[in-house]
Structure formats: C-alpha cells, structure tokens
Fold these 3 entries.
Entry 1:
Amino acid sequence: MALEIEEITALFQTRGAAQYGGEAINQLQHALQCAHLAERSCASAELVAAALLHDLGHLLVQREPAKEAGVDDLHQFLALPFLRGAFPDAVLEPIRMHVDAKRYLCQVDSHYQASLSPASQRSLALQGGPFSGEEAAAFMAQAFAADAVALRRWDDHAKDPAATPPDWAHYIGVLKQAASAGLAEPVR
C-alpha cells in the first residue's frame, strides 16, 4: 500500500534525525540538501521528488544492522513498494537506480571513486563495486539512467553540515506535483 505524502512527512519528522550513514548530517538534512541541489539544477518536479525521497528506505527499517554486519541494505529497493501507486516511474526509477549510478560513475569517470566520502566508498564495496564496461553500457541503456546519474551527483554533494536548504514544507507542493504527474487522480 502506497504511503500518502502526510505519512512520508511523518516518517521524516520522526526518523529523519537519525545520522546519515557515517556522515556529519542526519537523514532529513541529506534529503533536503539533495532536493535543493536538484531544484537549483532546474530538475523536473519528479526528479526533485526522487532526490528528496531517494533514501526513504533507510527510514522504513527500525535499525540498520546490515551495514554493521558488512551486508548491503538494499535501501534503494525498500521504499519502492511504499511509493508505487503514489508516484510515477519518473520518481521511482531514479530512486531504484541511484546506487547503480554510483557504480556506473566509478566505471566511466576515473576521478569519481576517489571523490566519494569514506562512508560512500565503504558502501560501494558492499554494493558490488564499480561496474564493468558492459554493465555500465547496460545501465545507460535503461530509461531514467541519466536522471539516476544526476540524482547520484546531487546525493554525493548533499552532505554539508553547514548547508541551509529550504525546509520540508517547501517540498510538499513539489511532492504533490510529482505525484500528480502521470496519475489519473490527484494525490491528497
């Protein structure tokens, strides 16, 4: 069953203060910074929504023992059942593909992997490491791959403890607009 925007908001209000991986910010700060970077890049409402919600999977689990145990938590997939039906593929697919976009960028950009934060480098190893050339080509052949790469770049830069992006209320309208895109009925 798809989450309503009010339920997503409540998740960020109740669980968004959790630390974002090994970074110096929390989950809510990361989501807001990522969405702000997308918005500043003139991204569509759907892609701004994807940037805001790309790590929602982290908030849907009570705790994250997977990374502590050296296992990929597959967070990019966890939120999809809760968002499907509420948002179109233009939101869902970049979320699903944002981890693979990191693996892609490691293959095609010789400086990218070294630019990743230590926490992101650790998660890269758990996520399967850089793509091969063939995997990178197959990734880019998918619909929404370019959007996922853009999301990944914003994700990588959305880790600044001094950043002051707009607050959650600013993005409610963007979420409603994105939810309405391609859906028969408007979202409440």
Entry 2:
Amino acid sequence: MLDVLGGRRSALDATLPSVAFVVALVVTGRAAPDAVLPVSLGAGTLTALAVAGWRAVRGHQVRAAVLGLLPVLGGAVVAARTGRAEDFFAVRILANAASALAWTGSIWVGRPLLGVVTGSALRQRGAWRADPHLYRGYARASWWWAGSFALRTVVLGALYLASTPVLLGVVQVALSWPLMTSVLVVSWRVLRRALPPGHPGLLHPVPAV
C-alpha cells in the first residue's frame, strides 16, 4: 500500500522545498532582511525543481515529483506577488482542502478513493467494489485519509491566518511524512479488520455470491 500511494519518496520530496524555504527564511532574515523573501522563494523553488529533475533522471515516480512541484511553483508565484512569506504555503493549503472534499465525496458516492487508487494500481478495475468486505474496508479507511487532509487544512490554515511562516513551514513538514505514515498504518489495520477469516486479501477480491 505504501508503494501504491506514492511511497516514502513522494512524501519526502513534498517536504524538501518547505524545509529549504524555512531554512532560507530564517538564515536570510538574520543576514539580509531586505532579500529574505526572494532568497527564500528561490531556495524553495530550486529545491523543488532539483527534486523533480533528480526523480526524472532516476526514473522514480516522476508524476509524483511533478505533482509535488506544482503547489511549490504556485505558492512561489502568489508569495512573489503579495510579498507575504506565508503565501508560499497558500496553494498547498487549498490543495489539502480540495483533497479533503474529494476523499469525503468519493465515499458518499460509493467510490472511496483508497479503493479507486489501490484497485487501479493493482489493475483490478472495479473488482474490489464487487467484494462487500473489501469495499467496506476501503470506505472506512478512506475516512482516515479525508480526516488527515482536513486536519492539515485546519492547522495550516490557522497558522496561515496568524501570519507565522516559519512555524507554518515546520508544522507543514511535521504533518507530511509522519502523518502519512500514521494514516497508512491505520488504513492497513482497518482494511485487515474488515476482511473475514480466510479472505485471500487485497490482491484477490471475492465477489458477493
């Protein structure tokens, strides 16, 4: 499941630009206050470009790297226009809000995204939906993913409104890989508990008789 949902690389790649931005913000703010925003935006953007380029060269999940690059570039453009360092994270906060809505909506319409993503990666098409136990497990586990995106939106949104860019960057990193790992563990346990004894597992959906 970790590999299907992007793996460690994608989670770490998403945090590196934020780390570079915050470090540059702190260091440049002390050494050259007048240049703090341009330097910080440059550090975050260049790091994101370097990560995407490295993944492309290595052939590692290029799509994930590109998707991680988009909110960084968008945030850099917004921050450059407004002159507010916290706007570097604006696009990412909006993306988390949209993700929370998407995951919640997918459950309500009977297409829980965890099942859609995992089933697609495993080339099961809609077979997982024909398995009532597997479908129920994916739906329950998807709520945890929706909750994680909602949590990010609320916490990061509050820090954004408080205009605390350094703390915002630190918390954004804390709510990326560690939170993703926790949700993955919980998702796996929820799925396993949803499957009755003797069920062959995620790779082998059992249609209802």
Entry 3:
Amino acid sequence: MSRLLIALVLGVSAAASGCSVATSTDSAPQTTEAAPAAASPLLVVHKSPTCGCCSLWVDHMKQAGFRAEIQLSDNVEPVKRRVGVPAGYGSCHTAEVGGYFVEGHVPAEDVQRLLKERPDALGLTVPGMPMGSPGMEVPSGEVRPYTVFLVHRDGSVSPFAEHGPR
C-alpha cells in the first residue's frame, strides 16, 4: 500500500473521528530520534493516541530533522490553554519547541524559520486540518490554500506564511 493511500486512509479516519476520540489513557512519553540530539530541535507533541494525521505530521517533522517526544493524552485542551492557542485557531495536536508552540499541521520549513528568526511571539498555528498540509496529504497531491498564523504575546494573530495555490 502506498504512503499516499495510507495518508488518505488515516486522514479520512482522523476527519471522521474529529481527531479527538481516544480509547486509551494517557501514557508515558515516547521519544524518537531522526538526528543527533545536539543537531536537531526537540518537539514535544501532545496528541490523541488515536489520531493518525498527527502521527503523519510528526513523521514530516522528523524527516526535516526534528526529534520528537510524544505525549499521548485523551484531552489536549489544557495544553492548548497553557501555551496560549487562541480560541478558534486550534487543531488536532499541539507541539512545543524552542519556547514556542506549534498548533496543527504547520510545515517544517515554517517552524525552522520561526526558530531562526525568534520573533517575540507565542507560536504558530494552522487552524483546522487543511487538505494537503503536512499530515493531511491526499493521493491527488491537491493542496488547498491555507495560512500559517503567528500568535503574538497579546493573543492577536498575523499571517506568517501562505501555502497552496492562490
């Protein structure tokens, strides 16, 4: 079975479940490494144990050189509140890296830019689950236009990057 077909099946499954239905309880963190510790940033990813699109996003980030520690939880809402994800800008998983949060299907290149530029902000978010974003790929390769937003310390947002055809 091709990777794209697997992504489609997992994406449809995630969309059908809202990526929020979980059947197991919280578990200990799982750390996976894609590069030496000194060379790559550590992402701490908070996600439901049943969300396939979140796992595909983690794979995307690891392929870009990030290390990942997975924190499985039936409810990631407290994490979203703690790090400052604004209402209406949430998605199915929340990550923390380098003092910032990364909400949803943010491309690795945008996270790398965030860590390089180090703006005075809380983090990045891609609201919802846009088709074609990392972890939400489809066999046709279609990417629906979406915006990555920078969340400022006061909770306001501004566009950080645009993806997909306009």
